[in-house]
């Protein structure tokens, strides 16, 4: 499975994470899926209502508005993303426990090092974590 994201959308996620540092940022990803590819067409930056550097909860009103806009645009929710201000770009135990949808894409942007690192994962049954190939286009 390959995940494709435009440089513009990639930069939007990085910018949000840096602006909200040291808190975790979060958001939804809209796009299209095929059997072997997920194309992220739009990034919806949402508010982390937990205001924490260790976990996040998306604002429900903002989620609803984003999904409504996706439907208007003819897109679907392909997944979500959040940042790890101080830890690597891999799912934490909490991330795995809260990954309720095995069809969803889970993006994690790490700001731990000088260069941000973005990875996308499929998480199944709280245990099986598959890192997906990422292509910035």
Automatic annotation (TrEMBL):
Domain of life according to the entry: Bacteria
Species for this entry: Alkaliphilus metalliredigens (strain QYMF)
Pfam families referenced in this protein's UniProt entry, alphabetically: Prok-JAB
Domain MPN: 3-137
Lineage, top ranks: Bacteria, Bacillati, Bacillota, Clostridia, Peptostreptococcales
Key words, A-Z: Hydrolase, Metal-binding, Metalloprotease, Protease, Zinc
A GO MF label: zinc ion binding
This protein's name: Mov34/MPN/PAD-1 family protein
A Gene Ontology biological process term: proteolysis
